Amino acid sequence: MEIGRLLTAMVTPFDAAGQVDFAQARRLALALLDSGSEGVVAAGTTGEAPTLSHEEKLQLFAEVKAAVGKRGAVVAGTGTYNTAESIELSREAARVGVDALLLTTPYYSKPPQEGIFQHFQAIASAVSLPCIFYNIPGRTGVNVTAETMVRLAQVENIVGVKESSGDLKQISRVIEEAPAGPDGQAFKVWSGDDELTLPILSVGGYGVISVISHLVGSQIREMIQAYLSGRVEEAARIHRRLLPLVSALMSPPGNPIALKHALNGVGFNVGGYRLPLVAPDEESGRRIMAEVRRQRLDLTVAV
Asked: What pLDDT, on the 0 to 100 scale, is given for residue 58?
């Protein structure tokens, strides 16, 4: 399965009792593919992964893949701060049929670069699936350096990185120095920040693992295709038009609180949150929806 340029980091819907709503997760995955995404990431940060049990994650992976089939890639968020636990979950995710794995940098423990390298290498070596590691120092407390990324690019089935450091100098260096894989495919850099998708494309990045694509997936895909086709000004116009939506969904109370509020507000019910996340206050909720309603949305909401 080709891992596309536009993946959506999918929210995890909950029902009124706070349980995972697997039926709605299936519907959401299909709606995202219908509105421009080439695949989805299940049980990532946006999917409230730290609050999901091992069993819930595996069922979520299986249900979403069963719904999506061959229409798009399903990338399973199987990385945690615990290497052994990450290996076990990754192996089980492979058995339920996902197409690739997303492995976050170990959080809280703030390991040194050698520990980060060995963590990702150990997980990748335990499975045959393509692996994407995730650098998000704002949440994990530690940056994966360019040197470590270039080393990781040499691990056979580590195919790319979701980069959320915001450091274009680092990202450019990785794109320049990372070797191609054994199959000749270039090491891929997906933007992990919607506001930096176009800038990262401009230095040789591959695509984006997006949050706002829940709502405007077709427009993000148009932006990527416009840039790749040489229509740079068209791509830049789309980029500028969507920036206020990025700000509305990423500013406090942040992701995924704002995104879930927006999805519920436009009629695609994804339920509430698991503690420690809570609903936005009334003023924040109004601000979020004011910008959402100003935008042209691509998500189809069943009546």
From this structure: 98
* Alpha-carbon dihedral sign for residues 78, 83, 85, 91: positive
Q: What are residue 102's DSSP bridge partners?
A: 77, 132
Q: How far apart are alpha carbons 244 and 241 in whole angstroms?
A: 7
Residue 207 is encoded by which pair of tokens?
């695509």
Give the CA distances from residue 93 to residues 58, 88, 107, 123, 254, in Å, rounded to whole numbers and listed in that order. 6, 9, 21, 12, 28
* Cα–Cα distance for residue pair 181/120, rounded to 1 Å: 16
Q: pLDDT class for 302, splitting at 50, 70, 90?
A: low
Give the chain's largest Cα–Cα span: 52
With contact defined as beta carbons under 8 Å apart, do 210 and 197 qualify?
yes
Listed residue (267, 220, 225) closest to 239, CA to CA: 220
Predicted TM-score (pTM) of the model is: 0.97
Give Cα 111 distance to the centre of its chain. Answer: 23
> Annotated catalytic sites, by residue?
134, 162
The residues with which 41 forms a beta bridge, in sequence order, are 9, 75
Domains and CATH numbers, the chain: 6-235 (3.20.20.70)
